[in-house]
Amino acid sequence: xxxxxxxxxxxxxxxxxxxxxxxxxxxxxxxxxxxxxxxxxxxxxxxxxxxxxxxxxxxxxxxxxxxxxxxxxxxxxxxxxxxxxxxxxxxxxxxxxxxxxxxxxxxxxxxxxxxxxxxxxxxxxxxxxxxxxxxxxxxxxxxxxxxxxxxxx
Length: 153
Fold this sequence. Notes:
Structural class: mainly alpha
Distance between the termini: 14 Å
Strand content: under 5%
Radius of gyration: 19 Å
Helix content: 55-70%
Largest sheet: none
Number of helices: 7
Order of helices and strands: HHHHHHH
Number of domains: 1
Shape: elongated
């Protein structure tokens, strides 16, 4: 369940590639529209790559919080580091659902002011130029592998 929105973005990326590369096969290199369609197709490919790296990172977050919830029960201090984005909150909610802490977790996120329409990361909302910082991308796309300690699936 973690990363449903991200997988939806990947499907969207595949559809962009399908549509625009289909149009490219009918054109020649000399047409200006060829390069526009090529750029849009490449953008679709990048959407797929970024969304899947992000989905992998959120799965690692899910495993981390699931172990922490299993060991300590629900504590807002455990959920606070994972409030940065909608995808991270979904990872926490999925782990909480697995361990029957869903009501407490939803109440905590509601108390913190998060609603269903808060999709973009908090850092981006505070400073849109954070997209140009490498640390932002490392934290999102290159999350370290986490090995579950209490579960074998």
